[in-house]
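Notebook entry, structure prediction.
Reason for the run: the old model in the group folder had no record of what sequence produced it. Starting over properly, with the input documented here first.
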Amino acid sequence: MPLRLRKEIQAVPRQAGVSIVFVRHGESEANVAKLISDIPEKIVNLTENGREQASLVDPGPIDLAYASEFPRAWQTAEIILSGKPFLIDGRINERKSGMDGRPVHEFNQLVLQDPVNFRPDGGESFHEEMERVKSFMDEMALNHPGGRILAVSHENPILAALALSGMEPHESALGSIANCQKVEIFWAIRGDPRAVRSSGAGAGSEASIS
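New structure, fully documented this time:
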């Protein structure tokens, strides 16, 4: 079920924080094959279509950029940033499923039994992923107050960030993020969300990539 994102969701912040512009990587070879790819050491590249998608992303002014450890994420970041430097952070890696190379639909069927707490053998639950992503977001808010950070990541970590930002975790866990869709989250120092802004061309999105 695709996650429908309102253009902006408001909550009251307690303190100044950071804006994090999450971008899902462009279309990858695994996306086309509909196979799970959750081991960063196994090279899975962007497709030509994925590279074109990345070239259309405008993150706006940013102070610092990060990408996950996966080649498809840092390839996307390289294109978005036109070769400017960025940092690698494993906390925004794709969710560990323990099912690398298996069809995506097999994992999706297993998750339905308990979308937030189900943890496959050798993998992590959505709740555990939320804790991992929260560590990244808290550090960004602590170290870069008032800043704007680009984070090139994956579908599941971005859904986890949305759950942390006040969306219902069950709904978020069953949602979807299109390739190169942007989701901007204001994250306060104590982990309080102020706003979420989403744009993208995928199903369930109400705005378009600018």
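Summary: The longest helix spans residues 126-143.
The old model has been moved to the deprecated folder.
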